[in-house]
């Protein structure tokens, strides 16, 4: 799911001719485009969707929404580590989906290509 999440503007700058900001979403910081809200200032809150600040929001509404999203686990869903999320959805006990498999300790740990940086060409071609 892709949410429109409220965030607080920490700083504003320009990148490749586009007005950008660093925005804090309850502890997670992301770079956001401000082209739709060119007068947004540091310290203000905005609703952000797919990297674009879309609407100014008052602080109390932003805090309430962030608290609700956190309570529902939606911030973790939106900003969390995708590998950890996949493992959790699969019911795995480990944060890495293959932690107990043959390749757990590095590149091809005890599999057929142990110690090699990449699998031989024929193995790679077989996967395509």
Number of extended strands? 5
Q: Radius of gyration in whole Å, from Cα? A: 21 Å
Q: Which strand order does the major sheet show? A: 3-2-1-4-5
- Which structural category do the helix and sheet elements fall into? alpha+beta
Helix content class: 25-40%
Query: Hey, roughly how much beta strand do the residues contain?
Result: 25-35%
Question: What best-fitting shape do the alpha-carbon axes yield?
Answer: globular
Mean pLDDT: 75
Describe the structure.
The longest helix has 13 residues, at 59-71. The protein has 128 residues and is of the alpha+beta class. The protein has a 5-stranded antiparallel β-sheet. It has helices spanning 59-71, 74-79, 82-90, 121-127; strands at residues 5-15, 18-25, 28-33, 45-49, 52-57. The chain is built from 4 helices and 5 strands. 27% of the residues lie in helices and 28% in strands.
Q: Which key features would you list for this structure?
A:
five-stranded antiparallel β-sheet; 128 residues; 5 strands; single chain; alpha+beta
Helices and strands in order:
Elements: E1 5-15, E2 18-25, E3 28-33, E4 45-49, E5 52-57, H1 59-71, H2 74-79, H3 82-90, H4 121-127
Antiparallel strand pairs: 1-2, 1-4, 2-3, 4-5
């Amino acid at each position: 799911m892709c949410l429109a999440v409220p965030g607080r503007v920490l700083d504003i700058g320009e990148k490749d001719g586009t007005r950008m900001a660093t925005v804090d979403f309850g502890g997670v910081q992301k770079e956001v485009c401000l082209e739709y809200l060119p007068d947004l200032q540091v310290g203000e809150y905005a609703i952000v969707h797919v990297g674009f600040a879309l609407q100014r929001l008052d602080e109390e509404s932003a805090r309430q929404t962030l608290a609700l999203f956190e309570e529902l686990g939606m911030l973790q869903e939106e900003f969390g580590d995708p590998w950890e999320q996949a493992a959790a959805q699969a019911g795995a006990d480990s944060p890495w989906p293959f932690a107990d498999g043959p390749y757990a300790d590095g590149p091809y740990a005890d599999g057929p290509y142990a110690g090699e940086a990449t699998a031989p060409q024929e193995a790679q071609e077989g996967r395509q």
